[in-house]
Every structure is written in structure tokens, then in C-alpha cells.
Design brief:
Arc Repressor Mutant, subunit A, metal-binding, repressor, 2 domains, Dna Ligase, domain 1, FUR
């Protein structure tokens, strides 16, 4: 899989983090990490479907185990926007999503864009409760322009 320079760096950071914890890097694990770096959000079914294009035999249990491992290592975020499907994404320091409750579209706010916002109140709120943040997710709901125009 071809990566942009920034994607390649993220891929290497993730693989190095797992290797330092003596976690075995299988072809399936590497492919899942690469896939999630390239895509904004993928469901388990989409991950399995994409893996089946690349590998002859995909063990579904291995896919679920890899997702659980990556979640436990804080490499992935799991998002549920419709109460049914779980979408996975590579974890970041700040994760912001805007969801239209009418059509279901989800917009992922780019970390570069979110860096322009002042999140000090979130940090201060957490610290006032005795928690030092290392990352956070914000999910906001509303109705998009297209749905309001209908």
C-alpha cells in the first residue's frame, strides 16, 4: 500500500509501538493498520471485505482480535454514530466528528483544522476532576445544510 509521507510516519510509529511491547506483527495486523491509516472510518465488515481482496483466507476471529488489541493499546478509536455500526479510526490526540442526524453523514474534522480551536476548557474541566487528558473525542449532532434545504 502506498502512503503519503505523513501516513508512512504514522504507520511506522504504530508498528514500532507494538514491537516495543513484543506484539507480533502479522501480515493481517499490518494490513489492518495500513488500511485504517488510509481510510477515515471503516466498519469491521469493510475491513474484512478489504482484507479478502488481499489475502486468500481471512480468519474473522483474527480480525476481531487485532481490532481489540489495537483498541487496548489506544491505537484505534471505536465510534458508534447510529447505535448499530462501529466505525474504527486511528487514534489521535483530538478526534472531532459532526454527524447529520437526518441523512447520517459523518464529517471527520481534520486534526490540523481542530488545532485552531481552543480546547483549554475541556482540559481544565478534566483537570478539575483529577484527570490529565492524553486524548479526547467530541461528537456533535445536528442537521446538515443539504437536509435543511429539502
Amino acid at each position: 500500500m502506498k502512503f503519503l509521507k505523513q501516513e508512512q510516519k504514522k504507520y511506522e510509529q504504530i508498528v514500532d509501538k507494538l514491537k516495543t511491547k513484543n506484539i507480533r506483527m502479522t501480515d493481517i495486523r499490518l494490513a489492518i493498520i495500513a488500511m485504517l491509516i488510509k481510510a477515515e472510518h471503516l466498519t469491521t465488515q469493510e475491513i474484512i471485505k478489504n482484507l479478502e481482496l488481499e489475502f486468500a483466507n481471512v480468519n474473522v476471529t483474527s480480525v476481531y482480535n487485532t481490532l481489540d488489541l489495537l483498541l487496548s493499546q489506544h491505537i484505534l478509536f471505536a465510534n458508534t454514530f447510529n447505535g448499530k455500526s462501529i466505525w474504527y479510526e486511528i487514534a489521535s490526540e483530538k478526534s472531532i466528528h459532526l454527524k447529520c442526524d437526518e441523512c447520517g453523514d459523518v464529517i471527520h474534522i481534520n486534526p490540523m483544522t481542530s488545532d485552531k480551536f481552543d480546547f483549554n476548557e475541556v482540559v481544565e474541566l478534566a483537570e478539575s476532576k483529577g484527570i490529565k487528558l492524553d486524548h479526547f473525542k467530541i461528537e456533535a449532532h445536528g442537521i446538515c445544510q443539504n437536509c435543511r434545504n429539502k
